[in-house]
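job 3f2a | input accepted
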Amino acid sequence: MIEIRLSAFARARLWGPMELPAVAGGSVADHVVKADKGTVAQDKSLAVEVAIPRGPVVSYGLLGGTYEQAPDELLKMSVLGGEQGEFDGSLAGPPETVIFGLPSEYVDGIANGFLAGVDRLSATPGGSLAFDRAAYGRIGSSPLLFRELAVCVTRLVLGDPAPWDEVLREELKLK
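job 3f2a | predicted structure (175 res):
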């Protein structure tokens, strides 16, 4: 895990593939987009966690994705849902309670963020992207934040190499 400051008060972590538990529930959303012929990306898995003060509330979210390349003309996206208990080691501070998993009210935001992230790619590879790790705060999470996180994860997992902190600052509007 790597932790950085995105601004004077906003913080972020980039988690590796085996550092967080996968969401235990099944797929709650699926989308398919057309892949660009001949585009290949390497298998990759990561998660992004952010805590961003916005007025009196700290926006909090964690979202991870796992991409598996396939010689396919489609890119298949799935979102895994369900809740698994508290996350004690999160970036969120008191009075926030962070829960591993993903409630249903954030699923549409993730699906929309995936589509927006694909639109920002120079080319779309075939295969599958599962949003398989998540944590949310009972106070500071929102569908909009999870949309932004999905754009970030999509770009970082499927896109051309870019400094991850720059992608986060751009998509979370912290520039």
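job 3f2a | The beta strands are 2-5, 11-15, 27-34, 44-54, 57-69, 74-80, 82-86, 98-102, 127-137.
job 3f2a | closed
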